[in-house]
Amino acid sequence: MLFFLISYIFSCRCVALNQLAYGQNLIVFMIDGLSNKLLAKYADELTGFNEMSIYGSTTDYLKPVYPTLSYPNWISIFTGLYAENHGFTADYMWDETKQIAFMKGRGENDTISEWWQQEIAPVWYTIGKSNIDVHCYWIPWCDLPYMDLIVKVPNERKLNFSDIDQSESVSTYFPSIIEWISKYQMYRQQFVLLRYGGIENALRTFGGGSREIIEALRIVDLHILDLQRNLAQMNLFESTNLMVLSNHGMYTVNNEVQYFIDECFEDLSKVELVVNRHAMMMLFTSYADEVFYDLQVCDQFAPQADYDNEEDSTPMVTIYRTDELPTEFYWKNSRFMPSIVLIAKPGATILTKRIPSIPMHDEHDRDVKEIGGYDNRFDGMHGIFMARGPAFKINHQAAPIEVVDIYQLMLNILAIEPPHKHNGTWSNVENLLNNEWETRPAHLSKNSSDILSIRPFSMIFLLFFSYILYINICLC
Questions:
Q1: 215 and 42 Cβ atoms separated by less than 8 Å
Q2: What are residue 441's phi and psi, to 5 degrees?
Q3: pTM to 2 decimal places
Q4: 121 neighbors 419 (Cβ within 8 angstroms)
Q5: How many other CB atoms are found less than 10 A from the CB of residue 40?
Q6: Closest to 78 (Cα-Cα) out of 141, 133, 160
Q7: What's domain 255-367's architecture?
Q8: Could you please report the per-residue DSSP string of 26-47?
Q9: Name one Pfam family in it (predicted).
Q10: What class does CATH assign to 21-81+124-251+379-442?
């Protein structure tokens, strides 16, 4: 009888160990350049995305920060801040004081601490300091030291902009991610950041109506489906949450409305440097008043009504002094800002042939099919957000949220308080979560530490009780 009691106790113990996780795990799958409109166009054919919606929560769209470029939005996801607060002004930046450039991760100075405001902790630092394992796959800055922590990222998982196809291997890492969560979830939470660049690459090179973008959508959908099926097969959706989101959308370039700012100036030397191109351009000059006037009277920027809306008097390019930029962009107080900024109407692009520029101009500047960078209020720039797991409602459609809302949501799922003030609004994301989520007992955030400390005593007591019972039976 003692044997059966002990066997029963140990079997119960093993079942509990297999079922109860130390706390919630989180996987964040970021897709560059996927707009809500593009996903909606092909939604019926995308099983992986559909399963995310059926078994989780989906927002109408995800509003990016301005400018709707990669780095400003990546860093907003990682910090919960608008660009003017986190300091990554654009994909390309110029520090006039130190005379150095940020080259969208490709430059020799791009990894120096100059660019990251040290008082703002990235999400992986906060999570890592909370004794949660962090795993990064092609995430900008994640492999660089911050304060007293550095995430160990193998070379093949470090972001390399020279290899545009490096994230195509993302699904080959799923088995190790699943194994890691399964193996250690009793003792340690896991946080996984994945980035996929295939959609933006296809849109930029081939355009939204191409066979290549349809194939790219099919591939990323299979990745998302594969990841969900692997998690479900191991019963990990009881302890693991999966977020799928994009940083911003892309929009088709109209070759009929491409402008070269060189044509606006008789004396090109008045503009010392232009930074960024296409949807937005920064002009650094010591002759701000003269340059601003030349741009205002430049004939090529005059309003043009189009066939779809003949009453539209919006200029194809709007010229701003930096301090007059729209307040709702939360951008004009950023670091590394110029005297003058040009912002193109969606579809239009701004280029230069002869003025010194970052990045350097080349003959391929006009060849891009789709780009980001336009007004973040424009629906073509809106991204996607969907999530499933124990934290989220099932088959739930929610109102739009903003990129700056993601940071607080990630930390909440992992039961961590944000270490700095952020620009996210909790009421925006609260409706995505299970009704019981905010009222869950504190021990459910990190439950098995209590269980593991109590159960051994319970087991000793039961063994002792079994022994006494066995003695009594023998005496009888």
A1: no
A2: -60, 150
A3: 0.88
A4: yes
A5: 11
A6: 141
A7: 2-Layer Sandwich (3.30)
A8: EEEEEETT--HHHHHHTGGG-H
A9: Phosphodiest
A10: alpha beta
